[in-house]
Amino acid sequence: MSPDGPRLIEVERHDHVVLIRLNQPDRLNVFSYHLRVQLADAMDAAEADPDVRALVLTGAGARAFSAGGDLKEMADPASRPPPASEDEERRARRATDRFRRTELPVIAAVNGDAYGGGATLALSCDIRLAAEHARFRFPGADMGLVVGAAQLPRLVGAARAKELVFTGRVFSAEEAYRWGFVNEVYPADQLVPEALAMAKQMAQGSQAALRFAKQVIDRATLDAEAVDLQNEANQTLRGTAEQQERVKSMHKRVTDG
Question: At the fourth CATH level, which superfamily is domain 9-189+201-255?
Fold first, then answer.
């Protein structure tokens, strides 16, 4: 147990590799406030440790990697626990984006459904491995937001990215592999061992070279201006009457089954 309640993030050390597991399976590992705070703590510890050379990110349970944002907290902001400080709130807000910004190589071991922010979190990692039953969805338009539009085109191409973002349709791990969204697909029981094996192989290389290689590849393939534009778009959209109504409607659909 953490001082603030359940341990919503589990951390395991495997030689020079840190495995971070989202641990809220009863709620499909959604990004609740306390989970994001603990995720920021885990990233702080990993990045501060000079012996850590790679990260693996996965979710607890077989159903979901992460269903994304906490619709309950989004639909009813008063249900969100008050932050302990402004710094805590800032760190929680940026927790999932840390995986895009970290210099460490990151493998997403997508153990189940990755929807919305969960799909974007997987997208933020350097490499994605998926369980055979995993599914993905970018439902931003349903929620009045722009989700994944800046990052998807470098993996699946502009036309496919528009299809997935505009329709918000669910797609399978097999489709994700065929389109280049995930690197490999494994039976569920092999997923994390395969991710750890790959991460340990990475950890044997020159860390300085790996970090520079990551920067070069991202500079070559990811348009920083597009990411900034996506963030600006969501700042404009978030909190509008339409966006709030869409969040409440989606939350009702989820809770009503």
Answer: 2-enoyl-CoA Hydratase; Chain A, domain 1 (3.90.226.10)
Give 143's pLDDT tier (boundaries 50, 70, 90): confident
Question: In the predicted model, is pLDDT for residue 2 greater than 50?
Answer: no
Higher pLDDT, 256 or 191: 191
From start to end of 15-77, where are the E strands? 17-22, 54-59, 64-66
Query: Which helix (H) or strand (E) is 211 found in, with range?
Result: helix 207-221
| CA–CA separation, 203 and 185 (whole Å) | 22
What is the average pLDDT value for the chain, to the nearest integer? 93
Give the pLDDT band of residue 169 (cuts 50, 70, 90): very high
Residue 148: is its pLDDT beyond 50?
yes
Nearest residue to 84 via CA among 72, 75, 95, 92: 92
How many helices, marked H, and strands, marked E, lie in the chain?
13, 10
Q: Which residues pair with 18 in a beta bridge?
A: 13, 55
Q: How many CB atoms lie within 10 A of CB 42?
A: 19
Which runs of consecutive H residues, i.e. helices, occur in 116-206?
117-124, 140-143, 153-156, 158-167, 173-179, 188-203
Q: Quote the crossing angle between the two packed helices 33-48 and 86-93, to the nearest 10°.
A: 80
Contact 111, 61 (CB under 8 A): yes
